[in-house]
Amino acid sequence: MSDTSLIDQIAERAERLLMRQDELQRTNAILREQISALTHERDSLKSRLLAARARVDALIDRLPGNQEGHPGGDSAPHSEQEVA
Predict the structure, then answer these.
(1) Among 21, 27, 33, 46, which is most buried by a count of CB atoms within 10 Å?
(2) Nearest one of 36, 78, 48, 82 to 60, comparing CA atoms
(3) Cβ neighbour number for residue 8 with a 10 Å cutoff
(4) Which pLDDT tens digit goes with each residue over 32-55?
């Protein structure tokens, strides 16, 4: 194998690796945008869930015979872990 042929093969491989790197960088950018959008959507849904839960708890507290809190004596708000 001649030196020129070996150099050509190395140059071709380097070119393919650079193209692959560019492709992976574009894919990574798209995935980061998707993560950001999904994180925002998740946070929004968690906020809506907490607000709905507060409204339901307020309605439960207004039910007749439930003036001392929720059944079972648990009048504390639900924890963040229950939402996740």
Answers:
(1) 46
(2) 78
(3) 11
(4) 999 999 999 999 999 999 999 999
